[in-house]
DNA sequence: TCGCCTCTCCCCCGTCCGGCGGAGGCGGAT
DNA sequence: ATCCGCCTCCGCCGGACGGGGGAGAGGCGA
């Protein structure tokens, strides 16, 4: 079952030792061949463009251009792009979702052992990337929409103002919020006014919309 | 590279012809063995429980219990559950998201050819299900939260009322909505009143919240 | 043809809301 | 010791909002 032509791999990681270790592991397999290395995202793009490998092992954290952007650029500019395996530390890292959206074919945890590494490379090289690319891409895009980078105003809200905004987002009136928080209605009015000012909205409805759009209700 | 023990497969599909076709394809491979069949979801659960296969090909549409629920039950009740491949028609079928959440290991399109079928079975049998199970499960769960079953009131809104609700959800006042829709302010008030009545809310803020919670803004 | 629904618009009225300016207390930072 | 930010509260005002009622025009199916 030895492949006539080996799977050609490019390594992109800013740490030389990591690249060396990966190369050692992959080179031990007769069907895998490390054809190039890159220490930055930009370098990765050009190396891949030149060498046209089958698989790229792409670290997420790299100087100049991170692994996600490099992935995007490679997939966007090349006609028959390689499968890109994103190397990350945690499976639930937010990078994972960005990478999925960018079109990564697979993932590898940094704590993965040599066997998992080799298996993953073989897997993505042979399979049609994901088992269900479109669905997962859709999910990742939705995830990005549901968790946008929190706008600046979120950090500027005081604790009390956050509470008030949450209650506003439950559809409560000022008087009801006052009862819930055990303060006077005038106090709530003050907080509401502060929230409107800081969110740049003109009424409670717009403030609640902003809260939803910002994902304010899910996050802290 | 022939496996010492073949991959044991169970087929779950309510159409006999489909099962027969699948069996014919899979049986041609020396490393695959079809050990059982099921025509309903309930049957699938019990057959899998008895035969303990490595892989289950699970149709989504089945009598009694659909493939999704059967998948859930199998994964919830068995200690070392098989990899479950959900068979669906469209890659962006809503079933896909349900199946992901239920813990399916892979997908197969009904129009897939024999080679893809065999490859997929081998893939899920050998790989650790998904390349990134936790992340995708998270995504699928989020998807379910973002797209809940639309409440009854959505269907009851007239076309004009939907328009008004959308504009309310943009943070517009009645007067602004009136200008946008080129009608009188009184007309908008009527529509708003109708929306509040049908949504069971008491003010525009609560109506907008209901619209967000219902996913009204994404859907039709 | 007769209802029924939808869309359009009108009135009045009480309430809630948001904008304005102000003020006192309290605690942390410098 | 002083200043600044936060929380608490006050009054006043105009406008927006929501509730209640009503009514005419047009469409569409029973």
From TrEMBL, chains A, B:
Record SUPFAM superfamilies: CheY-like (SSF52172)
Residues covered by the Response regulatory domain: 8-125
One biological process term in Gene Ontology: phosphorelay signal transduction system
Coiled coil: none
Xref: InterPro entries: CheY-like_superfamily, NreC/VraR/RcsB-like_REC, Sig_transdc_resp-reg_receiver, Tscrpt_reg_LuxR_C, WalR-like
Keywords, sorted A to Z: DNA-binding, Phosphoprotein, Transcription, Transcription regulation
UniProt KW Phosphoprotein keyword: yes
Modified positions (4-aspartylphosphate) in chain numbering: 59
Sequence ranges assigned to domain HTH luxR-type in this UniProt record: 150-215
Signal sequence annotation: none
Gene Ontology MF terms: DNA binding
Any matching Pfam family: GerE
Keyword Ligase (UniProt): no
Protein name, per record: DNA-binding response regulator
Species name: Streptomyces coeruleorubidus
